[in-house]
């Protein structure tokens, strides 16, 4: 199990939090997602044998947010 913290720009409301959490949570291999709106951070725990950090980043960016 790997853990990563991503800096995400463009989140501004509870809808953003829910959208990111729901979409990342659907990826096979993602075990836990915590979105911190005030800090602009997303903590994710995932199985790197089943999903890459790149795929997680891509999923966030596909929703219109920037991952730093």
TrEMBL record:
- Which keywords does UniProt give here? Chaperone, Copper, Cytoplasm, Metal-binding
The signal peptide stretch is none
Cellular localisation: Cytoplasm
Q: Does the keyword RNA-binding apply?
A: no
Identify the residues that the record assigns to the HMA domain, covering every copy: 2-68
One Pfam family name is HMA
Q: Does the keyword Metal-binding apply?
A: yes
What InterPro entries does the entry give? CopZ, Cu-bd, Heavy-metal-associated_CS, HMA_Cu_ion-bd, HMA_dom, HMA_dom_sf
Q: What is this protein called?
A: Copper chaperone CopZ
Q: Which organism is it from?
A: Desmospora profundinema
């Amino acid at each position: 199990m790997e853990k990563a913290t991503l800096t995400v720009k463009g989140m501004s409301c509870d809808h953003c939090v829910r959208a990111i959490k729901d979409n990342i949570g659907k990826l096979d291999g993602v075990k836990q997602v915590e979105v911190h709106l005030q800090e602009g951070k997303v903590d994710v725990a995932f199985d790197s044998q089943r999903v890459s950090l790149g795929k997680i980043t891509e999923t966030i960016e596909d929703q219109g947010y920037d991952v730093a």
